[in-house]
Design brief:
The chain has a two-stranded antiparallel ribbon with strand order 1-2. The chain has 159 residues and is mainly alpha-helical. Helix content is 45%, strand content 4%. The N and C termini lie far apart (100 Å). Bound molecules: zinc ion. Zinc ion binds next to loops.
Length: 159
């Protein structure tokens, strides 16, 4: 069986001879010239790369992450739940940062999805709503508060 490579930019699998090698970033795998150009343009900002970086940052031992398996999981999650890399990242982020979920090194993305998918969506929506509300608020002039020392509390004298 020919070795299968995974494109660093879009996550596509391709045969080792079909990839594209540009002048820069030689150790990075690209499925096509298009993906290479995207990478050069926006280095580490594609949703797939952001997701990979994030996963890398939350596992206790990132060097032991089984990427082949995780990338397969990303693909099947996208299909099954009809979501994209940004949604997956949001669900994981929500679990780790807001629910204080402790990442289990031995588990894959199943520890986050589907469990945190719905709550993370609701969370994102509530933030959007709050932003909209804030935009519709009347502009309030800044209030300058001058400090006035409180009059000293009267002491009760003992009789
Ligand atoms: Zn690609």
């Amino acid at each position: 069986m020919a070795k299968i490579m995974v494109c660093e930019v879009c996550g596509a699998e391709y045969g080792v001879r079909q990839g594209f090698k540009g002048d820069r970033f030689k150790p990075v795998h690209f499925c096509s010239e298009e993906c290479y150009n995207k990478f050069v343009e926006a280095k580490d900002t594609t949703p797939f790369m952001l997701l990979k970086d994030y996963i890398n940052s939350i596992y206790p031992e990132p060097e032991l992450i089984p990427w082949d398996w995780i990338i397969k999981q990303i693909k099947s999650i996208k299909k099954v739940y009809d979501i994209d890399e940004a949604d997956i990242r949001l669900a994981i982020k929500y679990a780790v940062e807001f629910e204080d979920y402790q990442v289990d090194q031995n588990l894959g993305l199943g520890q986050f999805i589907p469990r945190y998918l719905q709550p993370s969506k609701e969370f994102a929506e509530s933030i959007q709503k709050a932003k909209k509300k804030a935009r519709n608020l009347p502009v309030v002039e800044p209030v300058h508060i001058t400090y006035q020392p409180k009059p000293k509390a009267r002491k009760f004298k003992e009789r």
